[in-house]
Amino acid sequence: MDLRAKSLYIRRMKNGFSTNHPLLNNEIKAIRAWLKIRKTKPGAESDWLFLSRQGGQLSRQRVYQLISGFGVQANIPVVSHPHMLRHACGFALADRGIDTRLIQDYLGHRNIRHTVSYTASNAERFEGVWQGKVKLRGRQLGPNC
What gap in Å lies between CA 40 and CA 141, rounded to an integer? Predict the structure, then answer.
């Protein structure tokens, strides 16, 4: 994470495509506020953003427990898990009409087949097809495309 450059490096697992993601101003503000609080906690000198109660890095199992617990608190009817956040991101981008190739890059998918499931459920993507008002990669296309 580089707050000055307003970016976050995402190292993908499972042979995914690693990328730098921009951080929004409100995200930077929240991170800086958290870092001030974290200075008072054990492990304040750690490179990890979120720490265990003992000041070490959070285990994969602990992150799963936290997300599952937050899902219960929010009365989500299914068992929540960390990968659901990734799916939610993909669906949110598709619902905003973001180009499938950009979603692929953002999520780090090497194969487009892993990305199309997010866009396939968005029926709004067909809106305007027959009126000649289709947008492709941010450009308005006319009836003759």
Answer: 55
Q: What is the pLDDT along the chain (145 residues), one digit of tens a residue?
A: 999 999 999 998 888 889 999 999 999 999 999 999 999 988 888 989 999 988 999 999 999 999 999 999 999 999 999 999 999 999 999 888 898 999 999 999 999 998 988 877 666 666 766 766 555 545 554 444 4
Give yes or no for a contact between 79 and 67, defined as CB atoms under 8 angstroms apart: no
Contacts of 131 (CB under 8 A, 6+ apart): 143
Q: Angle, to 10 degrees, between the axis of helix 83-95 and the axis of helix 60-73? A: 60
This model's pTM is above 0.90: no
Please report, for the chain, how many H helices and E strands are present, in that order.
5, 4
